[in-house]
Please model this.
Amino acid sequence: MKISCNVIRDILPLYAEDMASQDTRDLVEDHIASCENCKKRLEEMRTFEEPPVDTDIAPLRNIQNTLRRKKLQTIIFSVMVTLVFAVVTIAYLTTPAYLSYNEDAVSIMEKDDGTVRLNFSEEVAGFDVTEYPAAGNSGYVYDITTWETIWHQKISRNNVENTVLNPNGETVASVYYYNTDGSENTLIYGDPITDGSVMTLPRVVLSYYLLFAVGFSLICGIGLVLFRKNEKIRNGLEKIILLPISYLFAHFLIKGLHSSTYLAGRDFYLILLVTIPLYFALSAGRNILKKLLNKKPKITS
Model:
């Protein structure tokens, strides 16, 4: 019985791989002895080379690096948010609650060697002393105030150490206790520096920093509008604008809607301590958000 070429070609792969029975092999060999086409097909199968295995691992490395960057950004975001929360919590617990003057809270004692010492009661958590020359070179005037904090009341009630106003022998002309409720200062030692009343006002230096941050944010915002089609400039401005925005948020977290302060140094340093981790948190959040938006499928109509 003559076998057609189609049947032989169906079983040629088994023959070429030496997987056919002896009867099938005999059948194929008899056919290809007289059929050049099937014989060529068999030779092609035997000379066929497997395609080389792609050993390039660069795509896998790119995927691995992308996952690492994403993980690192998530870690940075989490750590920075935690730092912001920690600093804000500490700032809240140590926010001064200013005390009105009373002799039990603070008293003055002049020693035989001419030094003047401030003595504080247990309710005082901290104090501030400002020194400036008196008129006519008659010595120095000292403005002091005291405060308590939630930390001092609820967590750690460490007593404030008594302090000497003039450790180098300066002449103490007057000592005023300044109140933060808008009332006039109270003279607690020495002679008055004026016939009228004396009042210590809060500093407004934080207002200047706040206005600068607002103005800088507006400039960057205008730049984003003008260069919205230039991806390189837009990305740079997006990173820059996060800095004044971070400062504005930090100011709000530390001072709320107020900008005047009696402790400008303390408040400014706390704002900076919040601004730095907040900036890195916003930067990491921006990168994560952009990647999520890029993964969204585009809907075409």
Remarks:
- The longest helix spans residues 58-93.
- The helical segments are 5-16, 22-32, 36-47, 58-93, 150-155, 205-226, 231-255, 264-295.
- Residues 97-190 form one domain.
- The beta strands are 97-98, 106-110, 116-120, 126-133, 140-148, 163-164, 172-177, 186-190.
